[in-house]
Amino acid sequence: MSSFARAALLGVALISILLAPASVLSTPQIGLSWNRCDVLETEHPVAGADRVAHLFMYVEGLDAQVLGFEIGIRIHSLQVYKCSCVLERMELTPAWSFEAGGCQGPERLRATFGPSDSNCPALPSSQLMYSSLSTVRDSGNCPFVQACPSTQATVSLWALANSPWTPVQLARTAIWRIDFDLARSCGFAPSGTACCTDDLAMSIVASGSVLMADHSYVELGSAFVSYSAGAVPTRPASWGSIKATYR
Prior knowledge:
Order of helices and strands: HEEEEEEEEEEEH
Number of helices: 2
Mean pLDDT: 78
Strand order of the largest sheet: 6-7-4-9-10
Shape: globular
Radius of gyration: 23 Å
Largest sheet: 5 strands, antiparallel
């Protein structure tokens, strides 16, 4: 083959590579939904007689293999509570105190990776190598109003795979189900043991990043849901269903 012919073939090959469709990572986005994942419910959970609110965390737009997740969830009030601060409006009621020493306590907060009951495709928990859940309370002051303290809870979630996960391409994929056991809140616990006030509207905001298979990090944006005890419908719950929740 002449040098001219070889050069022509090389040019054709190069053009073919340049015109081939590239595998491009779309912009991934984290999401939250009460009760289920396939239909988004961002305002009210459905709590059974066990007073457990189920929050599903999902991600959309991941079209490449991933090795892990690092997520932070902030919980605070939507309205002013016990002070006149109007800038931050962040206060943590006892009913949402899941940190160590809090009224509910960490034993009433659970996270299930790769939930099978989300009604969305879920990452297989069989590939999970490590996961962790922790809750702390952050305290501070509202800007310019030093006399008005504000507090929030920060829930941290980590997960690492022993082999890369491959999310369903561009689909909504469930990552965690987070169970908030509010059974010690005012309306359910015996007098003297309740965590009040639980009728305050709460804000739950999630953000974080995903560890890709090439060990790079990609931000997942943020997602928001709210909670209002006065508007939460309930459903009957048998002891069997309660046990199944924490199996």
